[in-house]
Amino acid sequence: MISRQVITFSFKLPRSLISLAFSLPHISMEIVSSFGDSPYELLLRSLSLIPITHYVVGFMLVLWVFLYNFLEFHIFQDMFSGFRGQRVDLTFNSCSQLYHEVVSKCTLLHGRYMSTPWLSSPHLQTTFLRFFGRPPVFDYRREIFSLDDGGIVALDWLTRFDVMENENIANGEAHQDSNMPIVVVIPGLTSDSDSVYIKHLTFYMAKRGWNVVVSNHRGLGGVPLTTDFFYNGGWTADLRKVVKHIRSKSMDVPLFVVGTSLGANMMVKYLGEDGGDILIDGAAAVCCPWDLLLCDRFIGRNAVQRFYDKALGAGLKRYAKKHQQFFTRLSDWDGIEKARRVREFDTSGTCRIGKFDTADIYYRESSCVGYVERIKVPLLCISALDDPVCTKEAVIWDECRANKNVILATTQHGGHLGYFDGMDAKGVWWVRAVDEFLTVLSSSTIIHKQNMMPDSLLAGPQKSLTDKDPYIHSVKKTENQIHHVDNKLLQRNKIFMERKIVSSDAAKGFEANSSSIDSFIFILKRFTDQF
Fold it and tell me: What region holds the Serine aminopeptidase S33 domain (predicted)?
């Protein structure tokens, strides 16, 4: 009897719990109905009790996380590294004589790059360079060089004599500048000698003692298009003629080339095309795109990159409008006016004038990546892995390991040609790195010597239009544009260029005798400055 009662009780307990469970929803609905007709109204009333300041803080936090990732900030990474920056990674062939004799002595390439803390984003670096780069103020000395097909390019010269305004330099010393090593600078897409980063480079190197000349592309630098052709990313003929022209006047002077952005692609392609017959002693490529097709795919990938694509496309359209009569006659002008991307401009303009069937064919044939293995002179390549224009996917890692003449220096940060460092953002790291590399290279035993000059060079220099007043002008110090100057200044510029381009046999004899001594003094001074 007792056991039977226990069993009956055990079955009655679950039934009571089940009835209680069924009654809970009715109880909860009664509680909700006591506060209002809808549960969402109860939720809104609860949210309204949270202070508005908490919502503001939460929104700002979400916005900061979004912008931090969207703009690729790295301020926290810099903080964790103690604001010491990240080491520069060098890629080279283990048997490279260039590394052991030159790059191993470059302190900047074996150090760290730390970007300006308040510019800790590749997009801030790149944008700051374009709009707030604070370029130095100086005047170029212009030479107009005539090409074989009738085209003209502006060669803007800058020497230590031009930038040392506060020093009294004797005429003899100014003349000796013509025997100093020469650096030819190749600007990027739609850039010229007046661009901010070009001014930073030329001013710094001229102040350090180099003779610097910016080879502006056709139609840029204030000169007109005089033939039915304009430059493109794979066009190396103009650079070859400019180098040949300068070498013909300075056979015993070390000659280097520095290419930037698209100009670096043109320069590397030129080095590979000429191989062992190259007329220069060394080169440096900064922020080179390497593979134009990959960069075209990359620059249209997401919202940030598309912003750069539109900005570069707008620059090309401004270039076309300056020479509208030329482009209207030879290209699809309606397509150029509608273009919003670089690719669209290239399809309507570059491909038609350059005789390329499609934009992809133009990019493949103009890319320099296939020419790296043929380079026979020392080449330093500097690239930032966070470059928002030239993707790291195109960087030539394997090619640098295979070619003993190429050294690749990559940094984690820097943006596209930015590389500002220091709290005041007045210094540009890659400018100093290039200067140090070329300084050590010019004093090394592996520098390329031009012992056998082509007959075309021995016959005389290429024709130059330095005697035509309309094409001789300087850059005003108060503005970033080119102005024509008065006859007195024109005459002084002509005298300067005549002094630099010595035509008499007596002057050539003097240069030949003094060049080796001056070059040795220059190399010794520049090398000791590094320590």
Answer: 182-394
Residue 512 in tokens: 């030949």
Please give the positions annotated as active site: 261, 387, 416
Provide the b/e sequence for 249-274 (b: ≥16 CB within 10 Å).
Answer: bbbebbbbbbbbbbbbbbbbbbbbbb
What is the rounded CA–CA span in Å between residue 292 and residue 252? 36
Beta bridge partners of 259: 186, 285
Tokens 């309309």 appear where? 470
Query: Tokens in use for 36?
Result: 């209002």
Alpha carbon distances (Å) from 98 to 239, 376, 445, 521? 25, 11, 10, 23
Per-residue exposure over 108-117, b if at least 16 CB sit within 10 Å of its own CB, e if not: bbeeebbbbe
Report the distance separating Cα 234 and Cα 165, nearest Å: 39
What pTM does this model have? 0.78
Integer CA distances (angstroms), 324 to 222, 225, 292, 470, in order: 15, 10, 26, 21
Length of the chain: 531
Parts of the chain belonging to CATH 3.40.50.1820: 86-291+372-528
CATH entry, 86-291+372-528, from 3.40.50.1820, 3.30.365.10, 3.40.50.740, 1.25.40.20: 3.40.50.1820
Q: What gap in Å lies between CA 522 and CA 525, rounded to an integer? A: 5
Contact 243, 215 (CB under 8 A): no
Q: Where are the beta strands (DSSP E) in 287-440?
A: 379-384, 406-411, 420-421, 427-428
CA angle 113, 261, 299 (to 5 degrees): 95
Q: Is residue 514 a contact partner of residue 179, using CB atoms and an 8 Å limit?
A: yes
Please tell me the distance from the alpha carbon of residue 422 to that of residue 415, in angstroms, as a whole number: 15
Question: 183-228 pLDDT, tens per residue?
Answer: 999 999 999 999 999 999 999 999 999 999 999 999 999 999 999 9
Give the C-alpha distances (Å, rounded to integers) separating 273 from 76, 255, 376. Answer: 44, 18, 10
- Tokens 């300056």 sit at which residue? 322
Percent of the chain with pLDDT over 70: 75
Residue 97: closest CA among 530, 526, 447, 527: 447
Confidence of residue 114 (pLDDT cuts 50, 70, 90): very high
- Taking the CA of residue 114 as centre, how many other CA atoms within 13 Å lie in the half-sphere pointing to its CB? 17
What is the β-pairing status of strands 420-421 and 427-428? antiparallel
CB atoms within 10 A of CB 275: 12
- Band of pLDDT at residue 164, cut at 50, 70 and 90: confident
